Amino acid sequence: TTLRQDKATLALTNDALTTETERLTAERNTVYYVIGTEADLLGKGVITREGGFLGVGRTAVPSATLRESVFTAIDRTRTTEIVFPDPNRVYQVVSRQDVTALATEPDKANRIRGGLRIVDVARFWAPSKYLIVMER
Fold first, then answer.
1. What phi and psi, each to the nearest 5 degrees, are found at residue 41?
2. Helix or strand holding residue 116 (H, E)
3. Angle at 57 (CA atoms; ends 54, 63), nearest 5 degrees
4. pLDDT at 2 > cutoff 70
5. Cα–Cα distance for residue pair 100/104, rounded to 1 Å
6. Cα separation of 49 and 61, whole Å?
7. pLDDT tens by residue, 32-83
8. What percent of the chain has pLDDT over 90?
9. pLDDT higher for 55 or 109?
10. Are 32 and 74 in contact (CB under 8 A)?
């Protein structure tokens, strides 16, 4: 009787640990992206403009506070390609992702066409779980 009770207790503990492991894994692998024009991203509070002199030469940077609700959530282990809305337009990676982890690196201004193909998921998402891409 005691062994059966111990076995049942261990089974319950194992189930709880498995559920918690699955939850933590999903949380760890969930990342977010948003693609839009400068006006869209400013309006959503995703980017701000910093630097420059008298309003000239200001640079788009990620906002200090990001709301997950304006981003698209993906599993970084399953989604390694992100297609841009208009393949003929030029886009700029605004967030601090490691762009050397892409199949095709953007130019020096982090501009790229078509979309992103991530070849090293861990390295690409290491700086931030929020990817911000701005249409130029």
1. -70, -35
2. strand 115-117
3. 95
4. yes
5. 8
6. 6
7. 999 999 999 999 999 998 876 766 677 899 999 999 999 999 999 999 999 9
8. 62
9. 109
10. yes
Predicted local distance difference test score (pLDDT) of residue 25: 78
Answer for the pair 82, 115: CB distance below 8 angstroms, yes or no: yes
Distance set, CA 96 to CA 41, 89, 99, 100 (Å): 16, 21, 8, 11
Question: What does 51-93 look like in DSSP terms, one character per residue?
Answer: --BTTBS-EEEE-SS--GGGSEEEETTT--EEE-S-TTSEEEE
Two tokens at 49?
Answer: 């403009």
Q: What angle do CA 66, 33, 112 make, to 5 degrees?
A: 120
Taking CA 104 as the corner, what is the angle to CA 110 and CA 69, rounded to the nearest 5 degrees? Answer: 60
Are 134 and 112 within 8 A, CB to CB? no
Nearest to 62 by CA among 108, 111, 107, 96: 96
Residue type, 73: A
The total number of residues written for the chain in this structure: 136
- Tokens coding 46: 């995703």
Confirm if 86 and 36 have CB atoms less than 8 A apart.
no
Per the model's pLDDT, the better-predicted residue between 72 and 111 turns out to be 72
